Amino acid sequence: MDYNFSELEPRWQNWWRGHGVYHVDNASSKPHYYVLDMFPYPSGAGLHVGHPLGYIASDIYARYKRLRGYNVLHPMGYDAYGLPAEQYAIQTGQHPAVTTEKNIARYREQLDKIGFSFDWDREVRTCEPKYYKWTQWTFLQLFKHYYDNNEGKALPISTLEARFAKQGSEGLDAACTEVLDFSAEEWNAWNEAKRQQVLMNYRLAYLADTYVNWCAELGTVLANDEVVGGLSVRGGYPVERKLMRQWSLRISAYAQRLVDGLEQVDWTDSLKEIQRNWIGRSEGAAVWFPLDVKSNANVLPGAQAYMPQFDPQPVPSFEIFTTRPDTIFGVTFMVLCPEHELIDSIATDEQRQQVQDYVTWAKNRSERERQAEVKKVSGVFTGAYAVNPLTEERIPIWVSDYVLAGYGTGAIMAVPAHDSRDFAFARHFNLPIRQVVAVEKDAVSDPATWSESMDAKTGYSVNSGFVSGMKVKEAMAAVIDKIEEMGIGHRTVNFRLRDAIFSRQRYWGEPFPIYYKTVDGQQLAVSIPEECLPLELPEVSEFKPTATGEPPLGHATRWAWDLNNRCVVENSKIDNVSVFPLELSTMPGFAGSSGYYFRYMDPHNDEAYFSKEAVGYWQNVDLYVGGAEHGTGHLIYARFWNKFLYDIGLAVKEEPFQKLINQGMIQGRSNFVYRSKSDNSLFISKGLVKDMNDVTPIHVDINIVDNDVLDLERFRQWRPEFADARFELEDGKYVCGWEVEKMSKSMYNVQNPDDLVARYGADTLRLYEMFLGPVEQAKPWDTNGIEGVHRFLKKFWRLFDNLSDEPAAKEELKVLHQTVKKITDDVERFSFNTCVSTFMICANTLTDIKCSKREVLEPLVVLIAPFAPHIAEELWHQLGHEASVCDAQWPVCDERYLVEDTVKYPVQFNGKMRFTVDLPAACTQDEAIAAIKSMPEGQKWMDGKEPRKVIFVPKKIINIVL
RNA sequence: GCUCUGGUGGUGGAAUGGUAGACACGAGGGACUUAAAAUCCCUUGCCCGCAAGGGCGUGUGGGUUCAAGUCCCACCCGGAGUACCA
C-alpha cells in the first residue's frame, strides 16, 4: 500500500478532533509543562511558510513532553485587535470585527492543515468581551495601585491615601511623575479634585500631559517601540513629538526588577542584551549646580525652588545627571534641553531673543528631522552662568537639543574632553576643552590637538584637585562621597526605559473603563465599578476621527456612564451629575497581549482572570517560542504585567517565560528571468547572459519555477505582457537566477504552506521546515530540498510493508537504540534539524539491512510521532493500537545495545589523521601501539622512530607524537 | 558609533577540543521500464596523479594545545537590534 498522505492526514485530523485527543485538563497527577507560541495577529495575507516554523518546533516539543508523561498545555489564540483591520475599515467601511473574523477563519484553516496539537477549547481572542474584560480589569488594578520603592512592590492606592492623611508625603519613596512635598494638614485640607490630582501622580496607570509620538497619518499616538527612526512601524508614516494628555503605564517603576529578572530566565544572551539596552540602566550621580547669582540677578526670586536642600541659605540651582562624576573638574559648560523650565528665567536680556528663537525652532522640529541631523550641532548660549560646586568656577549655560528632556533631568554638565557629544559641541562653538582623565598619570596632552574625545572609563584622573592621580573608578566614588558630604548631590541610577503610553486614538481596541467627572472645575478620571466589566466597545458610524479631532469613539452616540444604573447610556443623557462621558481613547495592541498566557490557563472563568488553582498548577510558561522582534515590546510589557500581577498576589512566578527560543526569520528566495534590453519579448536563460547590463532582471513567481527551471507555458500565461515571450534556452531549459530577499508579495517569493501540504502533505512540510536548519537561525526558504524529506517518509512507510513479529537481531536493536538516544538528546536541546537527519539515517540503515521487525519499528513510530504525527498515528493503528500514539510511551535507550566490541580508532601522527585501525574496545594504550607498529601503514608513518609521546583517549582517538 | 549574531562544498547544513563536510538538495553516470513516473545503485570539497598515493582546505593573521571549525587575541565581511540616554 502506498503512502497516501492526502487521504490519511485529514482522516486523523478528524479523528483527533472527534476524540478530543488534544484536550487538556487543569487537574492532573502528572507533572505540568506549558508550551506557548507567540500570539499571532491574524493578518489578511494569511500564513506563509515562515509563520509555522516556530509553531512546528513548539508542537514537536509539546508532543515530546506529553510522550514523556507530562500534562502539556499548548494553546493558541489570536491577538485580534490591531491597526491593519482598522485601516482597512477606514478605506472600505468594512467593520474591523468582520475582517478580523474572516482572517481568523483563514488562519485557523491553515493551522488545522498542519496538524498541531493545540487545545482549541482554550482559544482566546483579545477582541472578545469575555477576554478583554480581564484586560480592562488589569488596567483598573494598575489604576488603583502605586509602586512603593521601600516595599519594592505595588501597593493599593488606599494605603497611600491613609498615609497622606496621617503623615503627608514625608518618608514616602514611591514611583511618581513628580516628587511632591506636602504635609498631612495640607492633604486633609485639600478638596477631592486636588487630592485626585495628587494621587494621579502615583498611580501605575495614570493620566498625564506627556510628550508623545504622534502619528498624524494613523491619527494616533504610538509607544516608543512602535516607532523606528522617526517613522511608525506599521505603515512607515512620520511621527512627531506632541504634548498630549494621555494614559500611561508606570513601567519605569519596575525598571530595576526588569533588569534583575533577566538573570533568572533561560533566554538567549542576545535577547537579554536587547532588553538590557532598552531598559538602559546607568549608574551615576545627581548633582546640583548653583547658578552664578551675580550674573543672573533676574532669576533670584523664583529660582529658589530649584534647590530646596540649600536652606537655610537658599541658592538657586539646577540638577544634572552624570555617569562620570569623576570628570567634574573638566566641566567647561552646562547644557539644558530646549524644554527645560529654567531657560525662561535665566536667559539674559541680550540673549533672550536668540534663546527663544532656538527653543521654538527645536520644539517644532520633527523627530525624524532631529534624528536625521544628529551629526549637525546646534545650540545657543543663554547668557547665564552656573558655578562648579567643587572648583567654584563660573560655567556658561547653553541650550541644545542634543540634551533630551526625557532622560535624567534634561540638563547636563558638559565635559568635552571625555564625551564625544560634548566634544563636538565644544569644537563647533569654540568652547574650552580640558583634559581630566589620562591613560597614564603623566600622559597629558593638549586637547586642541585631539581629533576625538577620550570617552573610556579607564585610566587616571588628572588636573582634578583632590582626586588627581586616582584611578577613574576610585575618583568616581571619591567625588560622589564629597558631593554627598556637601549635600549637593547623591549616587543615583537612571533608566532609559520610559513609561508606556497606553492611549490610542483608535476604534479597534479595548475601551478604557473610565469616565470623566467634573469636580471643582476639574475633570477627574473615575473608574467604573469592576463588577460592571466588560465595558463593551460601542458601535460607531465611522472609524475616522471626528470633525473636532476626537478619536473614533467620539462618533458613538451611546457612550456615557450612568452612575446610578451602572450602565452605558445615550450621550444625550450626560448631565455631569449622574451621567458622565466615557473615555474616547482605546488601549494599544500590547494591552491584550501582555497577559494572555494566564488566560489560557483558565480561559472560560467569568469570576476571575484565572483561578488560583489554575495558576497554582501551571505556574508560568515553561517554553516560549517566537521572534526576537518582540524584544523591546511585547516581551517587556508582558514581564511588567506579570510582575504587577505577582505583586498583587495573582501570579505565582515573577517571570512569565522561563525558557524562550527565538525562531529565526525565514527569508524569501526570489527567482529572476532576464529580459533582453534590445528585444522586449526575448528572455535569456541565466547561463547564457554574457553581460548583466544587457538584460533586465525581473522577479518571477516562484510557483512557476521548479528547481530554478522556468515553466515556459505558465510564464506566458502568468501576465498578459509575457504572452508572446520567446526564450533563449540552455540544454532545452530556461534557468532562472535567484537571490535571498525578504518574503513579500511584491517579490513573488511568498510560499504558502497550503500548496505544499496539498502537494506533499503536512508531515513532509513539518519535517522539511525543521530540516532546513537550526530553529533559531535565519535562513532562506528554498523548496528545492523538500523532495528529499518526502522521499524519506515514503521510505519509512515502506519499512512496514512486511511487518514481522520475529524477535529483532542485536544489530537491529542497536540501530533502534542509537536512534532513541540521538533523538532524545537532540529534542532536549531543540536541535530538530539533526533529528530529521537521524531519522533518515535510521530508515536508510533499516532498509539496507531489510529490517521490518515490530520490536524495532514500533518504538520508532513513537519517536517520530512529535515530528510527523499523521503518519505516526496511521502506522500506530496499523500496528494494532486503539489509542492515540500521542499517549504512547517515549522509548528509553538501553545502553546495553550500544556497547561495541571493537572500536574504529583514528590514528594521528603529530595531530594529523593518517588511517584508522579496528581495535578491541578494552584495548590498552600499549596494545594499541603494538598493533599499530605491526601494521604496514603504521610502520610507514612511524618511519623507524620511537614515539616521543602517545595520547590515547579510550574509544576516541590515538595520537602519536614523533 | 555601540551591542548582539554569524562566516564550513554548487546549495541548506553536520561536527557539544578528538576521522571536517553527517543528512539532504542539486549535478554526473548507471539499473529497471516500450516510455514516463516511482524505486534502486555508483560518483560528487579543491589541487597533483592512469593509479596507488599525496598535498591543501572551515573569512584573514597570530596564539594556546598532543590535537582547534570549536578556546584566546587582533582584524575583515554579512545580518539583526539600538541610536545624541549624559
How would you describe this protein?
With 962 residues, the chain is of the alpha+beta class. Among the domains are: 281-495, Isoleucyl-tRNA Synthetase, domain 2, CATH 3.90.740; 516-583, no CATH class; 666-750, no CATH class; 757-897, Isoleucyl-tRNA Synthetase, Domain 1, CATH 1.10.730.10; 900-961, Roll (Ubiquitin-like (UB roll)), CATH 3.10.20.590. Helix content is 33%, strand content 20%. The protein contains 30 helices and 38 strands. The radius of gyration is 35 Å and the shape is globular. Residues 297-313 have low confidence and may be disordered. The protein binds one RNA strand of 86 nucleotides through helix 10, strand 11, strand 15, helix 15 and strand 34.
Concise summary:
33% of the residues lie in helices and 20% in strands. The protein has 962 residues and is α+β, with helices and mostly antiparallel strands. Among the domains are: 281-495, Alpha-Beta Complex (Isoleucyl-tRNA Synthetase, domain 2), CATH 3.90.740; 516-583, no CATH class; 666-750, no CATH class; 757-897, Isoleucyl-tRNA Synthetase, Domain 1, CATH 1.10.730.10; 900-961, Ubiquitin-like (UB roll) (Roll).
